[in-house]
Design a protein that fits this description.
Oligomer: heterodimer
CATH class of the largest domain in chain A: Alpha Beta
Helix content of chain B: 10-25%
CATH architecture of the largest domain in chain A: 3-Layer(aba) Sandwich
Largest interface: A-B, 43 and 43 residues
CATH architecture of the largest domain in chain B: 3-Layer(aba) Sandwich
Strand content of chain A: 15-25%
Structural class of chain B: alpha+beta
Number of domains of chain B: 3
CATH topology of the largest domain in chain B: Rossmann fold
Shape of chain B: elongated
Radius of gyration of chain B: 30 Å
Number of helices of chain B: 13
Largest sheet of chain B: 7 strands, mixed
Strand content of chain B: 15-25%
Strand order of the largest sheet of chain A: 5-6-4-3-7
CATH class of the largest domain in chain B: Alpha Beta
Largest sheet of chain A: 5 strands, mixed
Structural class of chain A: alpha/beta
Distance between the termini of chain B: 14 Å
Bound molecules: flavin mononucleotide, iron/sulfur cluster, FE2/S2 (inorganic) cluster
Number of strands of chain B: 28
């Protein structure tokens, strides 16, 4: 029976569990830190020695942990890119900007178990020779920031943080930094600029890879809240044991934010790949199915930026046969294992693991207009294609949802989106183009029908083409 | 050393590491490292490599003297990299050439992936396709995006003719736009500062102005406000954009968003004649281009010279041209009538003595021969010359010749201000170095002025020749000047000294003549004539060489070239130089 596997959220929702240090310690908190700090150097076959820190970094690499922030990049590999020879300080930043529409997992950790994050960060700092770390939390999480600050204070008071941690001579300091309310501050280089007190304009890569030229032009690691929490469990369990959770190349657990037209929206922690999309939506342990009498229409599987999937789609997915050979097999949408690789094979991504379920009552044009408006508002405006294209798409969709559509608007939208993706400074370009490209690709007839209806209406009422028609809203003021 | 002056000393180039790449299919070997905006060697970028291959990569935000921003995306190019096998060895084609993988979007392998040429370093074997259909399509896409919210008010835009948006749209854009939405409207004619207006609708947000202001001037006043398509350039709230370099942002703004209040709507740029000249407002000697039409100056613009000013100049220097066209310019050769005791005045005002001065317009020939007669008769040591460090080397050289013949004491007037960290020099004379090198003044400029004044007071000095300085402000009051037998003055604008002259010779602004200056760092630079002198005014070197010829009997030179070459022969610091060989950016001399 598909069910939750609570690792990160093991205690979070237990009755009586509180977010203070004492409760955390009572439940075994900060033991992972003690274990990490007591790690013995490792002798290698070739006679070389691995320092305790290198051992932990190696453990994280071997655990197969992939970033939970969006891109699913190997955490261990990311750490291995850090320039350790520059002589400059190395920084760790926890990305707690959680702004991807549909995503509400990091806030569970921050609100209910902040010390788990802090412990994961202290271990990560130690393993990466970081003396100063930041938690960058979105502006709209004032309570989260308060909780984190209190937790940091507690940790400092108990000697888990600050100077001479647990008497080992280790110094790590940590600060909470609140954003001012912009989605782009979640993009790691935009975040770094913001943390430096500037406008969150994402940086060009090359040359500004955070691992080399990050915060204050020093080597910097940026990891998501959930990613950093997993470090505790890798240390506690050992990488081999941890990697048994989930599926190969998609190890561990993941908190899924399930929203939309299901009976039981909420967050569910699963072993990666052990539960299918269909189970997440329909099983009583998860979404509990659609509202009565409704049919599934579409799924946005990994946060609003991921490409939408249409009910009934079938995908070619790599499967390891009994003989160990990889073969491509047909997998129906609802049978897709919820993991990084399967969703990628389906032409989308698990992104921030936020599933938005849409039933047949959903107007896809309206839904896309809503998303596009969000992206037009959140584009930082630094680079041309995204700055101009994001609002252009939003305006076209506004027109299309306000009675002034054209049949050709479907292709028109695709044309705009294609001039954005792959041409921007940061992945926001894809984030705003993909919904448009995938919605139109999969529901083109709805877009065309709406446009055609508007054209027919305009023709019969004898009004001129909508080009100069007054449209309230979008272009009248700032959105 | 046989020649004191040298052209840019080029040390034997160290062996450069090179990389072989292909640009549009043609192999080219380019240096592995090239200078960045600060001149530091950095990995060569695709854009630099394409420039070496003479392939234009259109760009907006990139500027060779500013840190790279990479925001306009105009320079996106399709490219390929040598394919590597799992063993990290190069894969080869059947003919043995390396196999090239054209870069594609990882999530959409049928679509080429562009890289921004301005910020992407080249690597061995890389192939760049600046002319491929995919590259062109990317460019068209960017141009279309830049134009959708652009007001397209070219007919009333000052940038028309110099606008990169206009230019690239013609070369790289599509004829029609798909855009059918309402444009974003932003403020027009925003007063950014005392000299700058901003049209936010025309701005393409390339941030050149911000980077220049922050990274070159060190002023953090400009920034971007708002979000997305509504982004606009603004000065920090409550402040104004008023540093001494603001007008450079107008030059580097690729569109007509930033305009100079001074130049706005004055003249269509394509009507302007451009002449290479120099700024005379301080000892830095920024290179500039005079924009003129029908002998009227409309603007100064910096002219790039990396040995002096880079591509920049200060606002004060740039705007210091209006006086050239002033209505009260001295335009007549005037002489005080013989036997007339009162001082001459070229205006109708009463002289100091109260008697009505009799001024007579005369000809150059008459005035110069009268002066020659006088100078030929004066006893040695009874003449002094106050020149100006605003004069050219050639003029100062000629004055020096005169001084030698007459045994005259000479000097010029120092002009000091405050230096800044970028260009402005504390020395507000453009040619103090030249005045020293030609021998007209001594290391400490002005040290002889009291001596000359004392000489007049003591009755020893009876004739004073003044060029381009109002000596009444420098210890030569009207009473003192009144003791002279002869006061010969050449200047451009009227002042207290010109009003007291016995002979007044109207001279030229530097924009009206040719000559050379040496800046505070020893850069000898020449400038050419942009506009015709007013009235009877003549370049000082012209009439000075006549006078020198008459007085000394030395052969004169009728051309500035000949004069310069003779000076180079006689002035040690200029040995070996020839007028024709001084390039547009000058040469460094030993000072
Ligand atoms: C537009 C945009 C918004 C993003 N927002 C977030 C976010 O809110 N939280 C987050 O953890 N990562 C976000 N990311 C991903 C980060 O850039 C970065 O990849 C991530 O924090 C790395 O952490 P991880 O490797 O642990 O996943 C965003 C990326 C983009 C392009
Ligand atoms: S892609 Fe969009 S969000 Fe990212 S830098 Fe460019 S304008 Fe800003
Ligand atoms: S005002 Fe001009 S220089 Fe400044 S950002 Fe806009 S277009 Fe660029
Ligand atoms: S720095 Fe000096 S030479 Fe340069 S423009 Fe300003 S005043 Fe003229
Ligand atoms: S020139 Fe603007 S991105 Fe390269």
């Amino acid at each position: 029976m598909p069910q939750e596997h609570r690792l990160i959220l093991k205690h979070a929702d237990s009755p009586g569990y509180t977010n203070d240090l004492e409760c955390y310690v009572r439940h075994g908190g900060y033991e992972a830190l003690k274990k990490a700090l007591a790690t013995a150097p490792r002798e290698l076959a070739d006679g070389k020695k691995m320092s305790p820190q290198e051992v932990i970094r190696d453990e994280v690499l071997k655990s197969g942990l992939r970033g939970r922030g969006g891109a699913g990049f190997s955490a261990g590999l990311k750490w291995s890119f850090v320039d350790r020879k520059s002589g400059k300080p190395i920084y760790l930043i926890c990305n707690a900007d959680e702004s991807e529409p549909g995503t509400f997992k990091d806030r569970q950790i921050i609100h209910k178990d902040p010390h788990q994050l802090i412990e994961g960060m202290i271990i990560s700092c130690w393993a990466n020779d970081v003396k100063l770390a930041y938690i960058y939390i979105r502006g709209e999480f004032p309570e989260g920031a308060r909780i984190l600050n209190r937790a940091l204070k507690e940790a400092r008071a108990k000697g888990f943080l600050g100077k001479n941690i647990l008497g080992t001579g280790l110094d790590v300091e940590m600060h909470v930094h609140r954003g001012a309310g912009a989605y782009i501050c979640g993009e790691e280089t935009g975040l770094i600029e913001s943390l430096e007190g500037k406008r969150p304009y994402p940086r060009i890569k090359p040359p500004y890879f955070p691992a080399v030229l990050g915060l204050y032009m020093c080597p910097t690691i940026v990891n998501n809240v959930e990613t950093l929490c997993h470090v505790n469990h890798i240390v506690t369990m050992g990488s081999a044991e941890y990697a048994k959770l989930g599926t190969p190349n998609n190890t561990g657990t993941r908190i899924v934010s399930l929203s939309g037209q299901v009976k039981r929206p909420g967050y569910y922690e699963i072993e990666v790949g052990k539960v299918t999309l269909g189970e997440l939506i329909h099983h009583e342990n998860f979404g509990g199915g659609l509202r009565d009498g409704r049919q599934l229409k579409a799924i946005i599987p990994g946060g609003s930026s991921s490409k939408i999937l249409k009910a009934g789609e079938v995908f070619k997915v790599n499967r390891k046969g009994p003989d160990g050979q990889m073969t491509k097999v047909d997998v129906a949408l609802l049978d897709l294992p919820y993991d990084f690789d399967s969703l990628q094979a389906a032409g989308t991504m698990s992104g921030s693991s936020a599933i938005i379920v849409m039933d047949d009552s959903t107007d896809m044009v309206e839904a896309l207009a809503n998303l596009s408006e969000f992206y037009a508002h959140e584009s930082c405006g630094q680079c041309t294609p995204c700055r101009e294209g994001s609002l252009w798409m939003a305006k076209a969709l506004h027109r299309l949802t306000h009675g002034h559509g054209r049949k050709q608007d479907a292709d028109y939208l695709v044309g705009i989106a294609k001039n954005i993706q792959g041409r921007t400074i940061c992945a926001f370009g894809e984030a705003c183009a993909w919904p448009v490209l995938s919605f139109v690709a999969k529901f083109k007839s709805e877009f065309e029908a709406k446009g055609a209806a508007d054209e027919a209406r305009a023709k019969s009422s004898g009004s001129m083409h909508q080009r100069s028609s007054p449209i309230a809203g979008l272009h009248a003021g700032k959105i | 050393m046989s020649t004191a002056a040298t052209t840019e000393t080029k040390p034997a180039p160290p062996p450069v590491d090179t990389i072989k790449i292909k640009v549009d299919g043609r192999e080219i070997e380019v240096p592995k490292m090239m200078p960045d905006w600060q001149g530091n060697l950095q990995p060569t970028t695709m854009l630099q490599a394409c420039q070496l291959a003479a392939k234009e990569v259109p760009h907006y935000c990139y500027h060779p003297k500013l840190p790279i921003a990479g925001n306009c995306r105009m320079c996106l190019v399709e490219f390929g990299l040598p394919a590597m096998g799992p063993d990290r060895k190069l894969l080869l084609n059947e003919d043995g050439t390396p196999k090239i993988t054209k870069q594609v979007l990882p999530y959409e392998p049928q679509t080429p992936r562009g890289a921004i040429a301005c910020a992407t370093p080249i690597s061995p074997g890389m192939e760049i396709y600046p002319s491929s259909p995919a590259t062109k399509q990317m460019r068209e896409g960017i141009l279309e995006s830049l134009l959708i919210n652009h007001p397209l008010d070219c007919p009333i835009c000052d940038q028309a003719g110099e606008c990169k948006l206009q230019e690239y749209s013609v070369e790289h854009g599509q004829a029609t736009s798909r855009f059918v939405e309402a444009k974003v409207h932003k403020p027009k004619a925003v007063d950014l500062g005392p000299r700058i207006l901003l049209d936010d609708e025309r701005c393409i947000l390339c941030t050149r102005c911000i980077r220049f202001t922050k990274d070159i001037v060190g002023d953090d006043k400009l920034g971007v406000v708002n979000r997305g398509s509504y982004n606009s350039i603004a000065a920090f709230p409550g402040t104004t954009f008023d540093n001494n370099y603001t007008l450079n942002t107008v030059d580097i703004c690729p569109v007509g968003a930033l305009t100079s209040k001074d130049f706005r709507f004055q003249m269509r740029v394509w009507f302007l004649k451009e002449s290479k000249s120099l700024c005379t407002s301080c000892g830095t000697g920024c290179n500039l281009t005079v924009g003129s039409r029908e002998d009227k100056i409309y603007r100064f613009e910096p002219r790039e010279n990396n040995a002096v000013n880079g591509p920049w100049m200060c606002d004060a220097g740039r705007l210091n041209y209006k006086w050239v066209g002033r209505a009260d310019r001295l335009t007549e050769v005037l002489v005080q009538d013989v036997g007339q005791a009162s001082r001459l005045s070229h205006s109708s005002e009463k002289s100091k003595t109260g008697a009505t001065p009799v001024l007579r317009k005369t000809t150059w020939t008459a005035a110069l021969s009268e002066i020659t007669e006088k100078l030929k008769k004066v006893p040695a040591g009874s003449v002094a010359i106050v020149g100006s460090a605003r004069q050219t080397n050639e003029e100062l050289f000629l004055l020096g010749k005169l001084a030698k013949k007459l045994g005259a004491l000479t000097d010029s007037v120092p002009r000091e201000g405050e230096a800044d960290k970028l260009l402005v020099s504390a020395d507000r004379n453009p040619n103090s170095t030249g005045a020293r090198l030609t021998g007209l003044c001594f290391t400490e400029m002005g040290i002889h002025l009291p001596k000359i004044a004392d000489g007049i007071k003591a009755g020893k000095i009876k004739t004073l020749i003044v060029f381009g300085e109002d000596v009444t402000k420098h210890g030569f009051g009207p009473d003192l000047l009144g003791r002279l037998d002869t006061l010969i003055v050449s200047d451009i604008l009227p002042n207290a000294t010109t009003r007291l002259a016995h002979y007044l010779l109207p001279g030229c602004a530097h924009a009206e003549k040719r000559g050379t200056f040496v800046n505070v760092k020893g850069r000898l630079q020449k400038f050419i004539k942009a506009v015709e002198p007013k009235g009877d005014a003549r370049p000082e070197w012209e009439f000075l060489h006549e006078l020198v010829h008459h007085v000394t009997g030395h052969n004169g030179f009728v051309s500035i070239e000949g004069l310069f070459n003779q000076m180079a022969h006689e002035v040690p610091a200029f040995h070996g130089l020839e007028w024709a060989k001084i390039g547009d950016t000058g040469v460094t001399v030993q000072i």
